[in-house]
Amino acid sequence: MANEGAAGGFINAAPANNDKLPVVRGIFDFSAEALGELKTWLEQNPPAVTIQSIVGFTQFTAVVADTVTAGETTTSTSYTDLTTVGPKLTGLSDGQYLFIYGSFVAANKTAGNTARMSIASELIAADDAWAGQSSTQVGSSIVAFKAMTLKNGSNTVTAKYRVNGGTGTFNLRALFALRYANV
């Protein structure tokens, strides 16, 4: 090697405690060949860094709202609250979230109509694009997923409900949030 020295063949490197690995004191003094060897070694021996050791990492935070067990109905054709509002998550910090929400039994007693559940925040309205829906008259479980970026400081996300006709019924309603990135 062009930059060979006493410590493992690298200039600006000192022997480690037991002379097994050099301690690098300056990366800019490595030759292209030495950097290539270092790259190969790192590919074969990747560093074991846990995500918790990265300063400032606050992702992958899960929050679960209290389940609303009351079976309630709506005839609204626009998204609205039911008598028992929610489920609702309050005080969510800014970030990117994956929301999972649903109702154990959702139904619309009027044939050909749907019962839909979506979510809304202070800045984002509930919509059909990410709604869970049931088109059965006897009830079925619905689950929906929505990725949402929250940027309101202290955010609230609430489940909302609607039908396209008839009467929708919702039982055992749940809302879960997984924060996966900072904004």
Which helices and strands occur, and which strands form pairs?
Elements: E1 13-15, E2 22-24, H1 32-44, E3 61-64, E4 72-74, E5 88-108, E6 115-121, E7 132-134, E8 140-163, E9 168-181
Antiparallel strand pairs: 1-2, 3-9, 4-9, 5-8, 5-9, 6-7, 6-8
Can you describe this structure?
With 183 residues, the chain is mainly β. It has one helix and nine strands, in the order E-E-H-E-E-E-E-E-E-E. It has one helix spanning 32-44, and strands at 13-15, 22-24, 61-64, 72-74, 88-108, 115-121, 132-134, 140-163, 168-181. A hairpin with a 6-residue loop joins strand 1 (13-15) and strand 2 (22-24).
CATH class of the largest domain: Mainly Beta
CATH architecture of the largest domain: Sandwich
Q: In total, how many beta strands?
A: 9
Query: Which structural class do you get from the secondary structure elements?
Result: mainly beta
Tally of discrete structural domains = 2
What portion of residues is helical?
under 10%
Order of helices and strands: EEHEEEEEEE
Which features would summarize this protein structure in a list?
single chain, 183 residues, mainly beta, Jelly Rolls, seven-stranded antiparallel β-sheet, two-stranded antiparallel ribbon, 1 helix, 9 strands, elongated
